[in-house]
Amino acid sequence: MSDGSGQQIDLHFVVNGQAVTVRCHPMARLLDVLREELHLTGTKEGCGEGECGACAVVMDGELVNSCLVPAAQAAGVQLRTVEGLAAGGRLAPLQEAFLHCNGAQCGICTPGMLMAAFCLLQHNPHPSEEAVRVALAGNLCRCTGYAKIVAAVARAAQEGGDAL
Predict the structure, then answer these.
(1) What is the domain partition of the chain in residue ranges?
(2) Contact 55/112 with Cβ under 8 angstroms?
(3) Statement: 9-84 belongs to CATH 3.40.50.970
């Protein structure tokens, strides 16, 4: 991954609990590094402008749109992508709640919605419906109308600490 200048860096960070090193241009988008270099394709590109939230990941505990983050900014950080929610071959309770409540349809927004919900529940394990809607406001969905997604997050919150 290069801008043509040939100047690349070795970038070290932790993603989904695994220490990784990638060689990339420092201004490459984190989204592209995740998808192309690390083959973590669950993170989607929707708009490429930070407006839709499809590329949302959790970086050092905060939700970020990876299409707006230069790769160099990820040096030394802890990242969690949608692939990091499931463990031991089993979906996380949050993911199960999305399935149970039919919170996913076409799937483009789902990874970003899951990451926004994950981040919310880490900071606020028992959010109100309004807090859920505010937390998801940066994620656009053209299929569901949001009601089933909000219901899925509420269901996961009801399950308490095991939801994450």
Answers:
(1) 9-84, 93-163
(2) yes
(3) no
- From 109, 89, 161, 87, select the one nearest 98 (Cα to Cα): 109
**Looking at the domain that runs over 93-163, which CATH code has it been given?**
1.10.150.120
DSSP code of 142? S
Give the model confidence (pLDDT) of 67-99 as tens digits.
Answer: 999 999 999 999 999 999 999 999 999 999 999
Three-state SS string across 3-64, please? CCCCCCEEEEEEECCEEEEEEECCCCEHHHHHHHHCCCCCCCCCCCCCCCCCCEEEECCEEE
Amino acid type, 112 = G
- Are 108 and 44 spatial neighbours (Cβ–Cβ below 8 Å)? yes
